[in-house]
Design a protein that fits this description.
The structure holds two protein chains of two kinds. In chain A, a hairpin with a 2-residue loop joins strand 4 and strand 5. The longest helix of chain A is centred in the last third of the chain and has 14 residues. Chain A is of the alpha/beta class. Helices cover 55% and strands 17% of the residues of chain B. Chain B is built from 15 helices and twelve strands. In chain B, a hairpin with a 6-residue loop joins strand 8 and strand 9. In chain B, helix 12 crosses helix 15. The radius of gyration of chain B is 33 Å and the shape is elongated. Classes of the chains: A alpha/beta, B alpha+beta. Chains A and B meet through helix 2 and helix 3 of A and helix 1, helix 12 and helix 15 of B. The structure holds adenosine-5'-diphosphate (ADP) and magnesium ion (MG).
């Protein structure tokens, strides 16, 4: 479970508050969409709750553990073991083939050999079992993004963060990617938090968060509605 | 990280190869220069140490001046003014009490052997050709124990001199310049006495042009007779059991005696100072090349770190920390440095091996090359050190990149 309390984020240059004290909670196993206009603070929110950026004030709790109180070492380990990331651009390390890219997070702890079977399995799930030894430049954009998904799942993370994962894909590939992401949450433990502009993809979520100018204007879990605070 | 470092290196083959060659060239030059130059220096030093004496005792030349005479001629006068002040040199420089030297040297346990000599500058002449040079009167049997001259005999044997009878061994250069052959007679004169014929019974070649072009050895008794200085000696050449003792030994005896006592390195100060200038130049050149190679590594890694900002962001998002990133780039420098270094050692070895087969200067059997491991170890360490230093800065800046800046940069 992720819980954000009075989360604020400002930038110095220009000096501006982007997130104005957000409160929300994400349950395990949720498929969470973050929507809003461009510049509304979606990416900023995603990075603040995912340890890549530090909030200016406020707290983020993962299962009761506050991020701000974790040592840098623990934070890196947490990121390696519990989190997966998918970005809109530049998905993969260009020197490595699909399989090696997927195994890269496991290398951090020297477990890439024991994880090889799992990596092949994941690549099969995303439909790339034929392309294990292709370099990223030999793959299409959609295929690259699917490799990135397989990579983000190799450590069996509890939280998956995706910033516009379909932003660069055609609709067929986008749908495929969203289906895969959705299927990850079926185990009831893994949460996927994704930013999207596409209303259809946003509608797939069972928990929608909508931002406008750094404030939550909608926080809706399917079946129940909590008014924005 | 080593895995990814190698992938990075292989992904930019041409750059890596160039960097590698830069380092290799630097290391290779260092090794080849060092091997050839120190080989040459060691050779010369060996010559200096072993073909002359470790320590040489020689008579002081005493010059005459008014101060020499005034107290003796006018012992009680307050002020003495010479219309023509006396000048000149005492007639001959000789060691005054050689026997006392002999007994002292015989008792000194550091002395392996010593040999009295009488040297004189002379004029060699033969059928109209004359040439100035040095005639060294030696006692052949002790001389061969003091120096390695025997090793350098081209014709004849040094011991052949042992039986006196106006016979000489001449340097190869001198032989050629005089247009003489083995068995010919050479007229030798010290300029004050009538020329006396000496028969050439041997030829040597030390490889030191100065010596080979102008020196002849004869039995000391023949020389004493030829220049009319019976039973005089001008030098005592000494070989020590351990050449390292030479300085201390020379200093001790110099303090006691009125003769000049010089160790081999004092006697050859000028050559040794040329060597230290050579060493300086060599280090300077090698360092300059290494600096250029290091700059190559620095530049390339700086560019690569910039190109790889996104990759760094990806790695950070997977949980790799700043140190992992530093390691990634540092390793690339180290790999390039050590591979380039190794290649350089091989290049340096090959070049010096080749130079070793060349016959340059007067050396017998080609250039002498120094193959001592310390050159190779130094060369490798310098290459490695330079590449570590030059890759550390870009690596550190890469390690400092915050993941968020990089990940966001793409949007
Ligand atoms: N590093 C930064 N420095 C200053 N302003 C920033 C920085 N990053 C983002 N912003 C600003 O924060 C606002 C929200 O950005 P972002 O979270 O990327 O929006 P979204 O992802 O919803 O399009 C934008 O106005 C953007 O210009
Ligand atoms: Mg964004």
């Amino acid at each position: 479970m992720i819980k954000a309390v009075d989360l604020k984020k400002s930038f110095n240059n220009p000096p501006l508050e982007i997130l104005h004290g957000l409160n929300f909670q994400i349950n395990d196993g949720s498929f969470v969409s973050v929507t809003g206009r461009s510049g509304s603070g979606k990416s900023t929110l995603l990075y603040c709750i995912s340890t890549l950026d530090a909030p200016t004030s406020g707290q983020v709790f993962f299962d009761g553990q506050e991020l701000g109180e974790m040592s840098s070492e623990d934070l890196h380990e947490f990121r390696n073991q519990k989190m997966g990331f998918i970005f809109q651009f530049h998905y993969l390390l260009p020197e490595l083939n699909s399989l090696e890219n997927v195994l890269m997070p496991a290398r951090k702890t020297g477990r890439h050999l024991e994880k090889t079977e799992r990596a092949k399995e994941l690549l099969k799930i995303v439909g790339l079992e034929q392309k294990l030894d292709r370099l990223p430049r030999e793959l299409s954009g959609g295929e690259q993004q699917r490799v990135a998904i397989a990579r983000s799942l190799i450590m069996n993370p509890k939280y998956l963060f995706a910033d516009e994962p379909t932003g660069n894909l055609d609709s067929a590939n986008g749908e495929l990617v969203m289906e895969i992401l959705k299927s990850i949450t079926r185990d009831g433990k893994t949460s996927v938090i994704y930013v999207t502009h596409d209303p259809d993809f946003a509608a797939m979520a069972d928990h929608s968060i909508q931002l406008a100018d750094g404030r939550i204007i909608l926080d809706e879990i399917r079946g129940q509605t909590t008014p924005p605070r | 990280m080593l895995f990814l470092a190698f992938r990075h290196i292989f992904a930019r083959k041409r750059q890596s190869l160039l960097t590698l060659l830069g380092v290799a060239l630097g290391t290779g030059t260092f090794v080849a220069f060092a091997a050839i130059m120190t080989g040459f220096q060691d050779y010369i030093i060996d010559q200096l140490v072993n073909n002359d004496a470790h320590v040489r005792i020689s008579a002081k030349e005493t010059f005459l001046s008014s101060a020499t005479f005034t107290p003796q001629v006018f012992p009680s006068a307050q002020h003495v003014f010479w219309i023509t002040p006396p000048s000149g040199q005492k007639e001959s420089s000789k060691i005054t009490y050689p026997l006392s030297w002999y007994s002292r040297l015989e008792k000194d346990s550091r002395v392996l052997a010593f040999a009295p000599q009488l040297s004189s500058s002379v004029i060699f002449s033969k059928s109209g050709i004359s040439k100035g040079g040095a005639l060294r009167g030696v006692t052949p049997l002790s001389q061969v124990r003091v120096t390695n001259i025997e090793k350098y005999m081209l014709q004849g044997r040094f011991q052949d001199l042992a039986a006196a009878g106006n016979r000489v061994l001449v340097g190869e250069g001198l032989l050629n310049k005089m247009g003489a052959r083995m068995g010919d007679n050479l007229l030798i004169s010290d300029g004050r006495n009538a020329p006396i014929p000496f028969k050439i019974i041997g030829v040597f070649k030390l490889g030191i042009v100065n010596v080979d072009d102008s020196t002849a050895f004869a039995h000391i008794r023949d020389v004493q007779q030829a220049i009319r200085r019976p039973s005089e000696i001008s030098d005592i050449a000494i070989r020590l059991t351990d050449v390292e003792d030479a300085q201390v030994f020379a200093a001790q005896y110099a303090a006691l005696a009125k003769e000049k006592v010089l160790s081999w390195d004092q006697a050859n100060e000028s050559i040794l100072s040329v060597f230290s200038i050579q060493d300086f130049t060599r280090s300077f050149i090698s360092i300059a090349i290494m600096v250029v190679a290091a700059f190559g590594i620095y530049n390339i890694l700086n560019i690569v770190v910039n190109q790889k900002r996104k990759d760094i962001g990806i790695l950070r998002s997977m949980g790799f920390d700043g140190n992992d990133i530093v390691t990634l780039f540092l390793l690339q420098g180290v790999v390039l440095g050590s591979c380039g270094g190794t290649l350089g050692l091989i290049m340096g070895f090959t070049v010096s091996k080749y130079v070793g087969t060349l016959k340059i200067g007067g050396m017998m059997g080609g250039m002498v090359i120094n193959y001592s491991p310390s050159i190779y170890i130094t060369g490798f360490l310098v290459a490695l050190g330079a590449s570590i230093i030059s890759s550390y800065l870009p690596a550190r800046s890469a390690g400092k990149l915050r993941p968020i800046d990089i990940v966001r940069g793409g949007e």
